[in-house]
Write a structure and sequence with these properties.
Blueprint lengths: L2 E7 L3 E10 L5 E10 L3 E8 L4 E8 L1 H7 L11 E4 L2 E3 L5 H13 L7 E7 L8 E8 L20 E6 H10 L5 H12 L13
Parallel strand pairs: 4-9
Antiparallel strand pairs: 1-2, 2-3, 4-5, 4-7, 5-6, 5-10, 8-9
């Protein structure tokens, strides 16, 4: 590492890194990269196995709007994404984070979520690692309005749908959030805990 320069340190930290990289052929070259530190995240798929339903949330995402609003084939509602509840990990506890997000965003009380896997979302430039969970819920677990925290600028719509409808919306392009697509696919490939047929994924 030759040099580390902070370009911005507000909501998150953006750095320019200068380093010496040894290539596979043994040649050493100087590279300059920018990396964005925004903390790590956790996401949860809420499912009702008996009714074959999942709960998603719809909210406005500025970065998605920036991409979509001027596109020739713009979506009907540019920037509004259907997603699983998720948030930035607080106090180093991803499981507690998704419990809080399930309540704040979807109004659902869950017990201990099941950890599935972790992975990098955009490792070429962002240090964030996402921790993925799923958790069962029943109708009686929906005890709050959800909608997110107004003091954090959240304005979230809670949407319940069948797993089949959700996957159809992936196919149609309505669901285009990567973490949500991954968790829905995992649910369809892992039928043992929720009676979802493997044949749904082709």
């Amino acid at each position: 590492m030759r040099q580390r320069e902070v370009l911005s340190d507000q909501w998150a930290r953006l750095e320019r890194i200068t380093l010496d990289y040894e290539r596979g052929d043994g040649k050493v070259e100087t590279q300059v990269r920018e990396i964005y530190h925004r903390g790590h995240g956790a996401a949860v798929l809420l499912y009702d196995a008996t009714r074959r339903c999942v709960v998603l949330v719809r909210q406005f995402r500025l970065a998605a709007w920036e991409v979509e609003q001027g596109a020739p084939s713009a979506h009907q509602n540019p920037g509004f994404l259907l997603e699983v509840p998720a948030g930035v990990v607080e106090h180093g506890d991803p499981a507690e984070t998704v419990r809080n997000e399930a309540w704040e965003e979807a109004g659902i009380r869950i017990g201990t979520p099941r950890f599935l896997y972790s992975g990098y979302a955009t490792p070429g430039s962002v240090t964030e690692q996402l921790h993925y969970f799923d958790a069962p819920y029943q109708v009686t677990d929906r005890q709050g309005p959800g909608g997110g925290l107004a003091e954090e600028g959240e304005d979230i719509e809670v949407v319940e749908m069948s797993i089949d409808d959700a996957w159809a919306r992936v196919d149609s392009g309505e669901i285009r959030d990567a973490k949500t697509i991954m968790l829905l696919q995992h649910a369809l490939l892992d039928p043992l805990s929720r009676s979802l047929p493997r044949a749904r994924v082709t």
